[in-house]
Specification:
Helices cover 33% and strands 17% of the residues. By secondary structure, it is of the alpha+beta class. It has one domain: HIT-like (HIT family, subunit A), CATH 3.30.428. Strand 1 and strand 2 form a beta hairpin. The radius of gyration is 15 Å and the shape is globular.
Length: 153
Amino acid sequence: MTCLACDRVQQIREQRNVFFVAELEESYVVLADGQRYVGYTILILKDHVEHLHELSQERRLSLFKDVTDAADSVVAAFHPLRLNYECLGNSLAHIHWHVIPRYEWDPEPTRPIWVRPEEERKVGVDPEVLPELVSKLKGELEKRITRETILSR
């Protein structure tokens, strides 16, 4: 069976993923395909592991540093009211973290975004705006991470 996250990782490695932002220690940072919540970011573990408890303590800590660096960067770049963090695994069995900005216009700010209709959540991003969003987030990440740790294309 094909893993959609592994497919994304392969696209990133082949420089074919337009949502790619940066490579961090344990993960690849990408903007989510749907940008209803502008700045919605996903971190995909570089290798196929399904459960956090299967990672060593060292890798878990390193991955969570990736998550917090990305989250700090989302806040600085897009100025949401708050962030939601999720690492689910029920639909996609490959460790990945969602960093979801929440804004004042949010119709249900106290509930997870998954309760909103899919057609509302998965609003695409204008191809002319996407490079600006990627650049903004990447710029903020670069402020937080040494050049040796962030690998860009």
